[in-house]
């Protein structure tokens, strides 16, 4: 296959959101290796194929179709369509494709730099930051703690083996020993990974907390979650594992499985997404059993719970894998995720009826991320200190 044909194929796959991980990586590698700008010009040529010959400079209907396909704005719920000038649509299309592949492309100099990046200091993404609260109330900032043994809780040793990780090692049961509870808390702009005494692994997202016993000594394993976490539960038929949600009347019972729970106070829905195994989700007197690929959504305000078939599991765990993944999310949902990860406050000047689809790395500076969203033509941002101002 010729290079031009291969490039066209990769762009089409990325634009239609059907590209494999290897294909996205290949597209990313081609772009990053391009030193002359030939790749970006070829992308523009490919995107322009089919442009009506009678009006090559500007054609609203044509570019609406391009924007619909490449930018994938959710017009089913958005109040106004995307209308882009020729160069803006091409730039936005290229930017989104590159970001989907995990890289950034410097756009052509015909567009002036956005004010959000011109005078503001960089707002960097979050990282491995958390505080461990011991049973006696002692607090240990984990991002500054040295690697090694941090504390001893009864017969359980707490170890920080490396940056972003915490493990519990139990040295044998003590009869009638008092159960001690620890809490792991991440701030806005923080995340951390935890291995419980039974071998269960937990990834904690920003602005979240998990309360758990230092050792599981009863007939079941109970933990309490606020915020968002991904679990890989160590199998034990004798000791069922239960996650109690502090921000909504939901609990999740499992034997051994992989799943994600999103339960932030500011979110209307508490969501459980099952990737592997089986769980029983209970909420407001209703119990539902989930199969892999299903999800349960509990409305915290009216108490209704719904089981969703064929959910996008990649979207649910994108945060754990280092990405934002938007699947028709409205601007409010997008900005709540940004606020938690970049530790910023969001202010709206006016309603913005914008919806977004795409994948953006979580390691980008916030100005780069906002610049990409602005390319849709549906939203504008200003950064003032740690505040992001949103307007149409």
TrEMBL record:
Transmembrane segments: 87-107
The keyword Transmembrane appears for this protein: yes
Domain Protein FecR C-terminal: 324-390
Keywords attached to this entry: Membrane, Transmembrane, Transmembrane helix
Superkingdom to which the source organism belongs: Bacteria
GO molecular function: sigma factor antagonist activity
Domain FecR protein intervals: 183-280
PANTHER family the UniProt entry points to: PERIPLASMIC SIGNAL SENSOR AND SIGMA FACTOR ACTIVATOR FECR-RELATED, PROTEIN FECR
Protein name: DUF4974 domain-containing protein
